[in-house]
Specification:
Layout: H1 4-11, E1 17-19, H2 20-48, E2 63-65, H3 66-79, H4 84-97, H5 99-105, H6 111-116, H7 118-125, E3 130-137, E4 142-148, H8 154-172, E5 178-183, E6 192-197
Antiparallel strand pairs: 1-2, 3-4, 4-6, 5-6
Length: 198
């Protein structure tokens, strides 16, 4: 098991915030995969690290420190012995479970609209970093997306890859979507870049 206290100290250096809904969606996935007892186990582990997040008191629309969001991913992976694929699937599940995304998708009729407004949607969920829709090619069925000025924990990159896959699956109504992270800040690149195919 990784040293979660050390990871917590590193993550606490992050100054950005996310909407609590992001954490609520993670909670739903943890319950789906590990049951209510799994969520209790996670919350107990967080409390042991002096991290207190009360789902009953925090509203989904509230802004929460990003480091808490990232720490939940790392902690879940460690205490449940999850693989990176599990984190990817959590990300993939998120657009289907997020009230914000589901309500937004009612008005998105095409990938063009989704990609054109990607950074606007990002800013509604995070107050730092930005998304750049680099290229969209409907004929060849691929897109390239970059996340800039955003560095937390490598697991968050895997989560984002799953998230992009889930969002595009909803838009193109297909489960043949694939995502590859072609550049990553954790590997020394200037930004995270994702190649999405469908």
């Amino acid at each position: 098991m990784e040293n979660l206290q050390e990871i917590k100290k590193e993550l606490q250096k992050i100054e950005g915030k996310v909407k609590a809904e992001v954490i609520f969606v993670q909670k739903d996935y943890i319950i789906y995969k590990e049951g209510e007892e799994g969520l209790e186990k996670l919350m107990k582990k967080l409390e042991e690290m002096d991290v207190f997040f009360d789902f009953k008191k925090v509203k989904p629309s509230a802004w929460v420190d990003e480091w808490i969001n990232s720490l939940i991913l790392v902690t879940a992976k460690n205490i449940f012995n999850w693989t990176e694929e599990d984190i990817f699937q959590m990300g993939r599940h998120s657009p289907r479970a997020s009230f914000f995304i589901k309500s937004m998708m009612q008005y998105i009729v095409s990938l063009e609209v989704m990609f054109k407004n990607a950074n606007t949607y990002w800013k509604k969920q995070q107050d730092f970093g930005e998304v750049e829709a680099v290229e969209l090619n409907n004929d060849k069925k691929y897109a390239i997306v970059r996340i800039k000025d955003f560095k937390t924990n490598p697991l968050v990159c895997i989560y984002h890859a799953g998230y992009f896959q889930g969002a595009v699956e909803l838009s193109v109504k297909s489960e043949k979507v694939t995502v590859e992270e072609t550049k990553c800040r954790h590997r020394g690149d200037e930004y995270d870049e994702f190649l999405i195919k469908w």
